[in-house]
Amino acid sequence: MTIAASVKQCLANMKGIEAQLSSLAINSNDEDTQGVFHDSMVTISSIKKDLQTRVLELERLEPQYKG
Amino acid sequence: MPSWIDLIIRSFVFLALLFFMTKILGKKQISELSFFEYVSGITIGSIAGEAITGLEKNMFQGMVAVIIFSLATLFADILALKSKSFRDFIEGRGTVLIKDGKVLEENLKKEKYTIDELSALLRQKDIYRVADVEFAVLEPRGTLSALLKKENRPLTPKDLQMKVPAEKEPQTVIMDGSILDEALRSSGKSRGWLETELEKLELTLDNVFIGQVDSYGELTVDIYDDKIQVPSPSLRPLLLASLKKTQADLEIFSLETEDEKSKAMYDKNAKLVQETIDKLTPYLTS
What we know:
Strand content of chain A: under 5%
Distance between the termini of chain B: 68 Å
Number of helices of chain A: 2
Number of domains of chain B: 4
Radius of gyration of chain A: 15 Å
Number of helices of chain B: 11
Distance between the termini of chain A: 14 Å
Largest sheet of chain A: none
Order of helices and strands of chain B: HHHHHEEHHEEEEHHEEHH
Structural class of chain B: alpha+beta
Number of domains of chain A: 1
Order of helices and strands of chain A: HH
Structural class of chain A: mainly alpha
Number of strands of chain A: 0
Helix content of chain A: over 70%
Strand content of chain B: 5-15%
Largest sheet of chain B: 4 strands, antiparallel
Number of strands of chain B: 8
Oligomer: heterodimer
Largest interface: A-B, 31 and 32 residues
């Protein structure tokens, strides 16, 4: 697997984690718990953006792996 | 009127009377916390017994006596709520038996408790060494409350400076195959949500004996057919695992790349994920 592919896979994982954290934040009853899940979701979301930029860079550098 | 019919009537009348009187007096009367309630409880019981079986006497006398005793207790309870000194007089105060780890012989003598009785009371609380106790009070009810010395107390998360997530009480939302709407509302969920969750578990409502929602909004069920295995909620442990995987991935990317800028970005994010993992671990493992 090329680097571009594994970074993409990691990005997909990140998206999944973000969604699960978001659903946990919504479903929890306790406000503190909700806050913790929400904060984590925001952190993960910022990391996700970094990875997205990197994926675009990689696609530019190695156009053959685009897709 | 034959006496057995009289007996049946009296039994039901007193049953109803006692039920309502105890309802009015509340849980305190049942627990018999104070001296007054202890005495009135016994007396009301024997008056009722006497009035039911003493067929030659008038039943209403017994009823009046029961009502008087109940009202007196109720009155004493209300007065005790208002005044501290009356409360101390009526309900009695606890006697300190052990203080600073030393037995107070004077107080023991005053309550007419022997060393044997004291150690029996301590043993009921699983305490076998008097030296382990910091402080012990003989409550008005006759039970002993003991505070162990700090080093003998059970270890708590606070002692270990562990962070534990706050937890709300689980709500029972399904009982005997029917939905309890009130509990569902107080856990902030809808019927639609419950149906989706049941669908995820591949169950129908009438298969479920008990269903509870915990503070993470996860549904755990007990079903009628004990042979079927219901998957336990594993969303949170799986989430922790995938967080750990992503963290490892980011570190690998950082090692593999030759571009300095990306390396720094991967490093920074790997650290961020690690921080998130540390923060979330208490919430995702319990």
